[in-house]
Amino acid sequence: MAERLIVVSNRIPMGDNPSGGLVVALHDALARSGGVWLGAHPETGDGSEPLEEIGRTPYQRLAFRLTQEQLDNYYLGFSNSVLWPLCHRRGDLIDMQRDYVDAYSQVNARVAQLIADIVTPDDLIWIHDYHFFPLARELRALGVLNRIGFFLHIPFPALGDLSMLPEPESFADCLAHYNLIGLQTRGDVARCLEMFRADPRAEFLPDGNVKFLDRVVSLKSFPIGIDAGAFRAEALQDAPSPFGRETPERYLIGVDRLDYSKGLPNRFRAFARYLENRTTDTRPCFVQIAPPSREQVQAYQDITRELEEIAGNVNGRFAELDWTPIRYIHRPVPRGDLARLHRKASACLVTSTADGMNLVAKEFVAAQDPEDPGVLVLSRFAGAAEDMTEAVLVNPYDVDDMARAIGEALDMPLEERQRRHDACLKVVEQTGTAQWSHDFLHALRTCIPPLGG
């Protein structure tokens, strides 16, 4: 039987023409193999429904429905109130509840059964992200011997933080049921290896793989990217300015889903510090686009209020009748408008306190005019900083450092801007979406097969 790719993620592409970074990255691989994409339906159900087909061409899309209780406890609860803050170094925000732990286990067990019902012996299984850490263990318990790969899109947690999990010793065991663990950066791989090194059940093999009890797992970094050509084409579209008649003379841009890991409060404070310290009468505008996210979670409600207060304070202090320093947009903006906003921006601020990769940094670079490029100001704690070393790198915890970087970016000579942009663009073009999926699947096909497979 021919090989088929089965992709599992929490979100599943909906509609006749789904879009998004992961869709672009996986489209060709799924289409070539007549593959299957399985994920959670956006609408809830009673939790007992069979898989629901929501698309068939060019690959099959199958959705399972969560109950409202599972949505609250598995998704908003354990996934996003425990694992998300754990992986983003915010243990102070973890909300641990027994119902969350139970729901997370139950949903992973149910999804494993749904996969086991449709898998064939030659299928490759590719699991995505923190919602499904234990999914391979559940599949192995059901007798599934296929090659199973896992890719974590967010940072790998630090060894010391794993003790905050309800059963810390089970985390390494869960991951060791995968044949391949893919991570965003070399730093993430180092943290994962540190976890295995600290576990007496693990040993390191001469080929770099990890033997854990009777299993062998491979680890490797696969930095995810974007379709740079497609994003550049959107930036070059001949369309009216997204600002309409209110186009600022110079502006900086930030584009982030509203999340405490993005460093937005200090970013706003840094722009205010820059305005305080500027020695000329320049009046740049800072445009921050931050669509809402996980609004039912208390930590997200708190940061929404904090940003509104800071933006109001900064504009109250510095605004003039014909100039608003911060334009804070708390809703989605069409992708084409974002691309054109990036192209005209003098600088982009990416100041995450922890980030798996951060594709906004790559989109900004791809959108630039190479003859007159803007400047990327990039947090050292974003995965993109590992290779995009010619960005202006900053410490997102240091407001003065970021304020200095804003001034440096706005005053940077053309020749230096071109040099930095050229170096960053090479990274973007070498880590495109097609290359990312190709490299991962090649590694999965060639890694050591599971015992009995």
TrEMBL record:
Gene3D superfamilies to which the protein is assigned, alphabetical: Glycogen Phosphorylase B (3.40.50.2000)
Protein's GO biological process: trehalose biosynthetic process
UniProt GO molecular function: alpha,alpha-trehalose-phosphate synthase (UDP-forming) activity
Pfam families assigned to the protein according to its UniProt record, in alphabetical order: Glyco_transf_20
InterPro entries documented for this protein: Glyco_trans_20
The family this protein is said to belong to: Belongs to the glycosyltransferase 20 family.
Name of the protein in question: Trehalose-6-phosphate synthase
Provenance organism: Pacificitalea manganoxidans
